[in-house]
Design a protein that fits this description.
Low-confidence stretches: none
Radius of gyration: 14 Å
Helix content: 25-40%
Distance between the termini: 8 Å
Number of domains: 1
Number of strands: 4
Structural class: alpha+beta
Largest sheet: 2 strands, antiparallel
Mean pLDDT: 92
């Protein structure tokens, strides 16, 4: 379980500041931020929008697994089902 400051529905810090379980929030950010979008670690993210018109689903799933693992998560499931990404991953203690 990962604890962090929580974001609102727009991706901004929630006010008043709230701290809570943030694993899903971290996963979403790792998926949607483009490669290079985090200056301190330009390879940390997937940039899923860049895969929208690609048929390289295996490459997408491999990139998700690689980025989540590098962030400290144990990925037990990463796949596509009915056009949706299905991921089961959690931070290791």
């Amino acid at each position: 379980m990962m604890q962090d400051l929580l974001l609102d529905e727009n991706g901004d810090l929630a006010f008043p500041l709230q701290r809570g379980e943030s694993t899903k929030q971290h996963q979403e950010l790792l998926l949607v931020i483009d490669k290079g979008g985090i200056k301190e670690n330009p390879t940390a993210t997937v940039g899923v929008m860049n895969y929208l018109e690609s048929e390289d689903t295996a490459g997408l799933l491999q990139e998700i697994r690689k980025c989540f693992t590098a962030d400290g998560m144990n990925v037990t499931k990463c796949g596509l089902k009915n056009g949706k990404i299905e991921i089961d991953a959690s931070y290791t203690s």
